[in-house]
Amino acid sequence: MPKIPGISPDQAVRVFGRLGYQITRQGRHIVMSNGITRLVIPRHTPINAYTMGAIARDADLSPQDFKKLL
């Protein structure tokens, strides 16, 4: 069972926005970047918990840190 819950794309954008990521492109997916790392967030509601865990890992976030930012 994943430690990160499945959330909506809007919640994911809010969390990564707090970390300094900005939306660079939108379409079927939301692409966010902080100048170094690029994150691709699908527009599924809810985002699969395993997918959300992989996106958080790409942003160097542990499951505990991600939950704190929710």
Q: Strand order within the widest sheet?
A: 1-2-3
Tell me the number of structural domains. Answer: 1
Shape: globular
Evaluate the radius of gyration: 11 Å
CATH fold field value:
Metal Transport, Frataxin, Chain A
Summarize the amount of helix as a percent range.
25-40%
Average of pLDDT: 91
Structure description:
With about 70 residues, this protein is of the alpha+beta class. It has a single domain, classed as Metal Transport, Frataxin, Chain A, CATH 3.30.920. Helices cover about 40% and strands about 20% of the residues.
Labels describing this entry:
Metal Transport, Frataxin, Chain A, 3 helices, 70 residues, 3 strands, alpha+beta
Furnish the topology, listing elements before pairings.
Elements: H1 9-18, E1 22-26, E2 29-33, E3 38-42, H2 49-58, H3 63-69
Antiparallel strand pairs: 1-2, 2-3
Short overview:
The chain is an alpha+beta fold and 70 residues long. Helices cover 39% and strands 21% of the residues. The two termini are 19 Å apart.
